[in-house]
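Comment on the following before class.
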Amino acid sequence: MMTKIGTTQRLLDAAETELIQNGGHLEMSPVAKRAKASVGLAYHHFGSKTGLIAAVVDRFYEPLREIALGDAIPVDLDWPEREFARMKAITDYFYDHPLAPLIAGRLAREPEVLDIEKAHMTQLLELGARNIAQGQKQGVVSTDLDPEMTVALLMGGHRLALDQAVLSAPRPDRNTLVAQVWRFTIYALRLDREHDVITENIVRISKPKAQ
């Protein structure tokens, strides 16, 4: 007998697969069948089709929270290197996750999805502002920049660039995008130009991954 956690995971996995295979469309019956669960159980766990889609989107954002909050980025890097690693990790996540084009496209129009994304972005903006302030205390980031406004501009620009990239056919080379976003960040934060070497190295030594 499947546990509650096992059933929930199966339903989320099945719903994500259905969304990807059907261009953002989902019906409860095929999801339940794929998850080897009853339709009634699917409604019991998520309340509605919309609730299930919202749960899938929420799960999509969990690794991004780990990048911002957890140990995904090494703590022994200096501030600019750590921020470059964080930005690249987010870019790679969007490029590699098959749900990303739907998050950027069709699902972005769903009110429940917008609410989830707003909640995640609010949290990430708060963390980002504290991070900018930390960079200022370390003497890396210009102190005349407002942390809240600066991080909103940086994160908003990066996210819009990612949405456009994952919806493009063909997609732009991810390493080129990483370099462009980081160079924009260097100018926006008024970092020393020596940090541009990071992008030059990543573009030179990294082979573009299959799009």
